[in-house]
Amino acid sequence: MTRKTFGALVMAALIAGSVSCSRPYGYRFYPDVPRFAPTHPSQVELLRREPRRDHLRLGEVWMRPEPRMRRAYVEDVLREEAARMGADALVIAVDRFFREPVWDRGYGRGRGYYRERQIIGIAIRYRRR
Questions:
Q1: Which end of the chain has less neighbouring CB within 10 Å, N or C?
Q2: Cβ–Cβ < 8 Å for 77, 63
Q3: Structure letter (DSSP) for residue 15
Q4: Is residue 29 classed as helix, strand or coil in its secondary structure?
Q5: CB burial string 29-44: b at 16+ within 10 A, e below
Q6: What is the three-class DSSP state of 43?
């Protein structure tokens, strides 16, 4: 392999890496949380407050929507990411995009309204009886 070919491969890898890191959405599991099989996105509930039903917090789903994105698209992406984690519901903890009030006790600095464009939700799985 020539030096020029090697350089081109390195550049391609760097570009691919930077593109994959700049996704406007994603998820992350909390440490020491059991893993579950993915659920279907249509079954994931979007909630604005934590349910009273007994549940387990799996991790966080986040999104940085663009200003022109429609609500239905944003909600579909959030559901898909939560479903990958095996979640039954996604509790919206921070909403800086639609600017609707959320109940975020246990996340951040208490209840409040936010002004920047970002959505963060806590993926939960209901405990089965």
A1: C
A2: yes
A3: H
A4: strand
A5: eeeeeeeeeebebeeb
A6: helix
In the chain, count H helices and then E strands: 2, 5
Encoded tokens for 30: 């909390």
Q: Which amino acid would we find at residue 60?
A: E
Residue 80, helix vs strand vs coil = helix
The residue written with tokens 């992350």 in the block is 28
pTM for the structure as a whole: 0.71
Backbone angles phi, psi at 18, to 5 degrees: -70, -35
In the chain, which stretches have pLDDT less than 70? 1-22, 100-117, 129
Give per-residue pLDDT as tens, 55-76: 999 999 999 988 888 989 999 9
